[in-house]
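hiii so um. not sure if this is the right channel but i have a protein structure encoded as tokens and i wanna go backwards to a sequence. like what aa goes where. can anyone help
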């Protein structure tokens, strides 16, 4: 008896691998996490990332851009986190206390990034092409940080709470202040 195409099985397998990875990341990043069940049902930042994966897949198909935007707005309503379907998020991104996080359409977020509440990866200008930040791997974005424009934040950097970042930063920088100034960390 035929079992069908292996393609859906592979996708389902990847889904569960990513789910376990997400739960482990949350448990590792949040000392208040008591169990994977609590994380699964009670972490809105994680729910926002899961919804983004769905909307990002939809966004990649021309006929599904409007439904992708509508689903992303519903996810915003549910979670308090707004991630444009066009944004690209790496693996093991964790949004802790996510209320008020905004990630714009052309933003790119690397792997192992920790984002606290109130962070904005915002655009400037009305021109086509990249308008939002690119965040390297292993970056920490402190509560209320604003990264504006097509800037690049190097891997391993830390952006302090309420910093306003308007310029590129090399890897392993500490960015603090308004406007933020990059210092070695």
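sure thing!! here u go:
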């Amino acid at each position: 008896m035929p079992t069908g195409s292996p393609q859906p099985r592979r996708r389902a397998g990847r889904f569960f691998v990513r789910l376990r990875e997400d739960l482990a990341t949350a448990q590792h990043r949040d000392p208040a996490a008591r169990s994977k069940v609590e994380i699964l049902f009670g972490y809105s930042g994680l729910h926002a990332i899961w919804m983004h994966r769905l909307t990002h897949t939809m966004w990649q198909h021309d006929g599904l851009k409007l439904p992708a935007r509508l689903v992303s707005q519903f996810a915003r309503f549910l979670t308090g986190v707004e991630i444009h379907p066009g944004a690209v998020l790496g693996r093991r991104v964790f949004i802790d206390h996510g209320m008020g996080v905004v990630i714009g359409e052309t933003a790119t977020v690397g792997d192992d990034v920790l984002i606290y509440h109130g962070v904005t990866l915002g655009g400037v200008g009305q021109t086509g092409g990249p308008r939002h930040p690119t965040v390297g791997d292993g970056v920490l974005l402190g509560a209320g940080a604003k990264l504006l424009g097509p800037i690049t934040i190097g891997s391993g950097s830390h952006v302090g709470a309420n910093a306003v970042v308007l310029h590129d930063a090399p890897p392993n920088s500490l960015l603090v202040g308004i406007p933020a100034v990059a210092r070695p960390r």
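oh and The two ends are 61 Å apart (CA to CA).
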